Amino acid sequence: MADTKREIERKYEATPETRLPDLTRVGGVSTVHDQGVQELDAVYYDTTDLRLAAASITLRRRTGGDDAGWHLKLPVAPGVRDEIRAPLSPGVPRNLKTLVRARTRDAELVPVVRLLSSRQVTQLLAEDGTPLAELSRDAVRAERLDDGRTAAWDEIEVELADDGDPALLAKVDKKFRKAGIPAAASPSKLARALAETGLSVPPDATAPADAPEDAGSGDAGAHVLVYVREQVAALLAYDPGVRRDLPDAVHQMRVSTRRLRSAFRTYRKVLDRAVTDPVGEELKWLAGELGVARDTEVLAERLRGRIDAMPRTLLLGPVRGRLRRWTAARGSGSRRRAVAALDGKRYLALLGSLDALLADPPRLKQAGGAPDVVLPRAVIRDYERLAGRVEHALALPAGHERDLAMHDARKAAKRARYAGEAATAALGRPARRFAKRMKAVQSVLGDHQDSVVARDTLRDIGVQAHAAGESAFTWGLLYGQEQRAAADRERELPQVWAEAADEKLRAALVS
């Protein structure tokens, strides 16, 4: 069994002679309580080519202290990590291996570095004795496990207590800086150990290594590849969240797949389709596997909102219970399907294809062109595609055919929006405004499609309720609400589209 802790901390350089300032003078801190010294022994695991370290991920087996066990630390933001813990065992726990599989692929996790730390622990307490933060002063000795090289240093960590106020760390930081105690140069003990024992961490393949220094530099290909790298990085970053069933993780991972596919299609004259089309097909497959879970999540939330807003006198029968059973049945199966996809060889092959594409980008002639010429042309092509679909949908009478046409327009609006977002770094405000307008169109069309899907589901749930001897009255009312919502979006679309189709907005892209 693993548990998770959000770790928010700051690290500082120190020597044995470093004197700490009086932290009881920090706002909110009433008492500083000495907890004694702990002797910690941690062995860090990674692949032989340090793939976890390249992604700022750490995996260790630690004994000593009050949290002995396996610790996997995943970056969330600067100074913030999720620490996932598992009990001590001889080998790396299977669930922790799974969480880093997108990074390690089929490579073995092996011991890389051993850290011995003598830790003096001090608690910062509020007036009522509530822990606010923990200050650790560490004397560290690191040893490479392949050749025995060593390094030693002292450092200070200040870690926020659970549910603590991050403002406290800023106050402590100010106090430390006034005392001449500088922030640590390395983000973690492992990073420092690797550097000081001569182990070179490879660059993260998804980092924008050749990102243009500013919006006016770099060719069109460089700008597109920066965007592609960002989306690959997002895909990898959300992988553990999907496996952990974190809120919104499936949605964000799915969005990254769609943005990648959109970039490949929009900028098909920048990156060779002979390479990107097969990758795009695999991204489409992955989005589909993730989509079942996401669609269930969105639909259940929509229906719960409808039910919550309905007067109690109109809720006939076990309406909430029936929706919970439907959600549980769909949700558990869809999550298993998503995780099974991430555990499969096809997904690993897709990640390998993305690695290869980034390592050797399939640049075409237009990739060397000026971004303010090449990128607007691609964005406007997507806009014209959307315009044709919207006009076709608006010309149809209400009904099934219009529903299908509006769904096609929704997909085109999403692609146009992503095209504008991908070009924002190069084109600035015009591309940002364009993407915002396309998002407005997408939102109207998206809500319309959600109502179409909701009606099909409400009919199915109503039939199930009736077959179980329950009243289907409420489900019929909800169906009617969704019909009205769809009609409202159809009436709203012409105005939203007229605003998005502003000729001046498109002209600004190419000016």
What does this structure look like?
This protein has about 500 residues and is of the alpha+beta class. It has helices spanning about 50-55, 95-100, 100-105, 165-180, 190-195, 220-245, 250-265, 275-310, 320-345, 345-360, 370-395, 400-425, 430-465, 475-500, 505-510, and strands at about 5-15, 30-45, 60-65, 70-75, 80-85, 110-125, 130-145, 150-160. It has an eight-stranded antiparallel beta barrel. β6 (about 110-125) and β7 (about 130-145) form a beta hairpin. α6 (about 220-245) packs antiparallel against α7, α6 (about 220-245) crosses α12 and α13 crosses α15 (about 505-510).
Topology overview:
Layout: E1 3-14, E2 31-46, H1 51-54, E3 58-63, E4 69-77, E5 80-86, H2 94-99, H3 101-104, E6 110-125, E7 131-144, E8 150-160, H4 167-178, H5 189-196, H6 220-243, H7 249-266, H8 273-309, H9 319-343, H10 345-359, H11 371-395, H12 400-427, H13 429-467, H14 473-500, H15 503-510
Antiparallel strand pairs: 1-5, 1-8, 2-3, 2-6, 3-4, 4-5, 6-7, 7-8
Helix pairs in contact: 6-7, 6-12, 7-8, 7-12, 8-9, 8-10, 11-12, 12-13, 13-14, 13-15
Based on the model shown, name its key terms.
single chain; about 500 residues; alpha+beta; 8-stranded antiparallel β-barrel; about 55% helix; about 20% strand
